[in-house]
Amino acid sequence: MSCRAKLIAGVGALLAAGGALAVYAVYRRKRKALSSTATAAGPCTTDPTCHRDERDQDEGGGQPKVDTGSASGHVSKGTWSWIRRDQYDGLYKGGSIAWVQTMLVRQASYARALPTPGDLGPPNCRTAVVLWMHEACRTYRLTTECLHHAVDYLDRFLLLRPDTTPFRCRVVGAAAVLVASKILDQGSAPPLDGLCKDLAGACVPGYLVRVETGLCDTLQWRLHPTLAVHWAELYLVRALDCSEQGSADRDALLDLPRFARVVYLLTKALLYTDRFRFKASVLAAATLHLVYDGQRDLLRKATGVRPVNNVATCMEWVAFLMQDS
């Protein structure tokens, strides 16, 4: 069984056992379906989610041939889409309200443990650790979703342990990457000795394991948060389901560079503690409204929010992130 097959099987078992959100399943089905199509267009340099695909191409001895007539990929303006048609047509009809409510309940249950901008201690320490975590995920070619989970673990830990020293904060960041990789990238978890070397030899593998266990215990093993990247994907799939077949709006929603832009902005937001002023669902909606500005009518239906109310402030903040992007 290949590494990718083991990954998909392992995540599938985890979702079935843990009762995780339906959007996780959509995300995994999408990655499996695009493994032989989206990667054929070459490595993506704008979206860190493509690191896994780049590694698979290297191990496979080259890129597969592009089948431009294949039904497994939708071509929009010369670029591959980020999801197949059979994965979104009618997917959320009838059940979208219930799934959104499930995600809202999950988001509310985690909200009590989410930090506010003033709760995380010295911001420079946290920013440096998040940058290190991002580099670690790139080094070991972990998915962007893995990075988002790891940063969420770190932030909630710092809220509960505000007296954490800068050294221990970095070790906790390494442990968070390790935990997230075991959950989301099974079979590709970074080696303990490798992470310890990345920490400049500041700790030994045994100590990192103890910190990893302590991190999970501190978080009460609540390791499946509802993040902005999950909301963004759910909103886009719902918008696709509301669009007309063959319309320009659908082509725009399927455009891979735009989707990569959304992921990039949400990943960049991880550096800033100001993002905790907004719920993950609101942050995702605001980002989509700015990146897909020509499809705001569809996004209003998909997200249930309007730029003129509580999302307006968040849109201004995301626009600030876009200025130097």
UniProtKB/TrEMBL annotation:
Record keywords: Cell cycle, Cell division, Cyclin, Mitochondrion
Domain Cyclin-like: 131-217
Pfam families attached to this UniProt entry: Cyclin_N
InterPro entries listed in its UniProt record: Cyclin, Cyclin-like_dom, Cyclin-like_sf, Cyclin_N, Cyclins_cyclin-box
Protein's GO biological process: cell division
SUPFAM superfamilies linked to this entry: Cyclin-like
Coiled-coil ranges (or none): none
Region (Disordered): 38-76
Family designation: Belongs to the cyclin family.
Record's protein name: Cyclin-like domain-containing protein
Native species: Plasmodiophora brassicae (Clubroot disease agent)
